[in-house]
Structures are given as C-alpha cells and as structure tokens.
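pipeline: protein-struct stage 2 | run 1193 | Class I SAM-dependent methyltransferase
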Amino acid sequence: MQASQLPIFFEHITLQLEKSSQEVRRLFHGRGRKFEGLEQITCDWVDGQLLVNLFKQADDDFLTQLKQGLLELTNQTVWRDVEGKTIVLQHRYDDGAPSEILVGDLNSKPVVVESGLKYQLDIGRNQNFGLFLDMRYGRNWVRENAKHKNVLNLFAYTCGFSVAAIAGGADQVVNVDMAKASLSKGRDNHRLNDHNLNQVKFLAHDIFKSWGKIKKSGPYELIIIDPPSFQKGSFALTKDYKKILRRLPDLLVAGGQVLACVNSPQVDCDFLINSMKEEAPQLNFVQRLKNPPEFEDIDEQASLKVLEFSY
C-alpha cells in the first residue's frame, strides 16, 4: 500500500460522510481495486463509528500517515455534522484481527439501520461483524419479493435475509445454518424489528445432512442460497454448491424463485448459470442483481454475484 495515495482515501471518506445518512454503509472499498495503492483498505460507517480495516501489513510510513489523517478528520466540520464518536483501526491480516481504538470508545454491539430495518452487530471479536454490507440490494430484493411466500434461507448466518423477508410480508421463513450462535443473533435481529417469531424457524443443522427436515417445512416459493466461499470441513464452493442446486426442484413450487449468491473472485456468473443448467435445468436464469455503487469493482465478475432464477 502506498502512503502517497492516502489523500485520495481521505478525500473519498469526507465526500461520502457528507452524503451519508445515519444508516450503516461502506464508505471506501479499496478491495474493488479502483484505487491504486489502496487495494487493501476499507472503511465502514457504523452508528457514528468509523471502522477502518487493513487486509495486509502496511509499512510504518503508511500507518503513521493513516492514523494522523484519521485524527485530523475529527477536527473537520463533517465529523461534527455526522456526530462522529469513534474511530477504530482493525488489522484483519493478523491473528484474531486485533483492533486499535484511535478515537473515542468502541460500542462493540451497536444496533444499526439498513433500509429502515434494524440489525445487531458485534464489532472487534470476529473478522465479520454480523452483516455483509455488499448484500444490501439482495436483502432489498427479498423484501420486495417475499409477500405471502414460504421462504427457505440456506446458510442463514445472522438471518439478514430472513429479517428482510418477514418485513416484506413473508408467511414463513425457515433459516438453516450450522452455527447456533449465528442463528441466535438472527433471532435477536427479528426481535429488534418486532417480528412475530412464530413465523420464523431456526434450524441449526448441517444442510447436507438435513434435506428431510428442510423439505418437511416446504414446499417453498422462494429459496435463498448464500454460502461461504469456503468453510473448512463443511463447504467447498465448486464441489458442494452443485449438491444444493440439484435439490431445488424437490423443494420449490411451480413459479418459485431462487436467489443464488456467490462472493468468490475465483468463479464468475457462468459458474452458477451453467451449474444450474446441469443440476436443475427446470430453473431459468432471470437476472443478476446490481451491487451497491460503493462496492464498485474493476472486474464485476470478481465481485459479489447475486443471481435470480425462476422455476
């Protein structure tokens, strides 16, 4: 990373803060490789807190200028206008992703708002804080397409899609994820939005060993598939994704929809489109959803891919 490029970073952050609402947002996305010399840095706005993430070890000059610039930001009018409170620098490349609090006191469990819906985050303890911000348009799409539907949410994590679906009038959402702790946070997210938990199921199961339980709550009008790119011992993208796709015809009603997602730069849209043709040819590709503009990537095929299919 190049210290000489940091003025671009600060100029971009200041501009985005001036335009920002109080909703959670990515302010700077170096990982999209649109900013030369800043490819390993991101910045998020989280409930009055600026979270800066480094994904690669930087030299002392870069770190010194970065910290100095962040401290100077707190003296600007824009920082007061947005009621900024805290600045945190997280070293994502290091074991445990340690955080440095540069300004203020960290609220590690803020409740944030996205598209009018509330989510509980958990900052600092893990690399991911509980909501993938690049999936905002995907959650919005689910909200707009869930009315009166029975929804299956595979790899549910903290149930962001589920919250969006219930907010959009879904009759039921079935969330499946191996991690009980993540599903517990998902339950809390529904409570934050005053949702009726009788409409939501939380299945802490290995998807590949639980098709019987999953089918029992079907058939479904909408299925969401948003797996990790790789999870040691439980999911390998190119091998295991196809195992899910071949199950879809048995789970869907006629006219049902599927939102299939993949966030690995190693595969492009054709991986999902061709895999669907092979494993579930009854489903037709409809469209790829756009990503939020703040996540612009020099190679759109390397960025998040969210594809709609119909049965």
